[in-house]
Amino acid sequence: MIKRTLHFGNPVYLSLKNEQLCVDYPDQKEESIPLAQRLKIASNSIQKKVSIEDLGVVILENSRVTVTTALLEKLTSYNVAVITCDSRHMPTGLLLPLEGHSEQSERFKIQMKVSLPLKKNLWRQTVQAKIKNQALLLKERGTVTADNMLQWVKEVNSGDTRNLEARAAAYYWKHIFDLNDFTRSQNGIPPNNLLNYGYAILRAITARAIVSTGLFPTLGIHHRNKYNAYCLADDIMEPYRPYVDLIVSHLVDNMDDLEELTIDLKKQLLELPALDVLIEGKKSPLLVAMSRTTNSLYECYAGVSRKILYPVYA
């Protein structure tokens, strides 16, 4: 079953009732009323209910969203990624369960003992998958040849010491959008804002899958920044980035104004978890495919397998 993504961009009251997420939409005129009184009013307002077991991601994008602790407890017990946004409406916070797997302690021990050669081999596979998916997306868009990138896939060595990932990225970002002088930058011109939003959602999806597999998202195979709590998520999401780029490229092609992240733009980016990807020759929603990737990663850690499963762009 495809897990749902819920986005709340307006003031709402979120609570728990009978294993369901209850959404109350109060009258906007009530916003000036004290919180305690508003919660009483909410019981008489328009209400919708959603089964928590059907949820994969919940995004809170308004400072006046009220959430009960009982609901947060239930969401984490079902491994629902709860994302909070800042005043610029960009995802900045992520709530995940502390215990995501029944064998978590044992899996943490295995993860911490992973050898450096294995990490380098896994990073090689990751970079190869990323460059290949970038190349296939470029090829599909038909703006420029991608044969050179497909050749670089074959040349990536253990640990990518030649940094072919960066070389491929420079070529990729120069040609992926039909825009003059576009450069990929966190604070750059649009569509960088769309990419930032999409990658933040992808990062949350990845972290959710890592935790549900019983692994620790801070211990990466390549990323090591001591200030980064999601090094492993930043590693594993790399081959999935082109799926965000795919959505953004369609927006660039069909929308005139990308300066502001409107509700319509976000709606299309939030379709990412349900996007069909090809993994092991079969189509699967990205949210499900990510769990297969993280499970295969654990099998590599445990010595059961030597190959991490990534989707192939098609």
Structure overview:
There is one protein chain. With 314 residues, the chain is of the alpha/beta class. The protein folds into 2 domains: 4-95, Ribosomal Protein L15, Chain: K, domain 2; 104-301, CRISPR-associated endonuclease Cas1, C-terminal domain (Four Helix Bundle (Hemerythrin (Met), subunit A)), CATH 1.20.120.920. Helix content is 44%, strand content 15%. The protein has helices at residues 35-42, 69-77, 104-112, 116-141, 147-155, 164-175, 192-212, 231-236, 241-254, 263-269, 286-301, and strands at 4-8, 13-17, 20-25, 46-51, 55-60, 66-67, 81-85, 91-95, 276-279, 282-285. The protein has a 4-stranded mixed β-sheet with strand order 1-5-7-8, with helices on both faces. Strands 4-3-2-6 form a 4-stranded mixed β-sheet. The model has no long low-confidence stretch (mean pLDDT 92).
Can you tell me the overall shape?
globular
The percent of residues in helical segments reads: 40-55%
What is the CATH domain class of the largest domain?
Mainly Alpha
The side-by-side strand order for the widest beta sheet comes to: 1-5-7-8
N- to C-terminal distance: 22 Å
Topology:
Layout: E1 4-8, E2 13-17, E3 20-25, H1 35-42, E4 46-51, E5 55-60, E6 66-67, H2 69-77, E7 81-85, E8 91-95, H3 104-112, H4 116-141, H5 147-155, H6 164-175, H7 192-212, H8 231-236, H9 241-254, H10 263-269, E9 276-279, E10 282-285, H11 286-301
Parallel strand pairs: 1-5, 2-6, 5-7
Antiparallel strand pairs: 2-3, 3-4, 7-8, 9-10
Helix pairs in contact: 4-5, 4-6, 7-9, 7-11
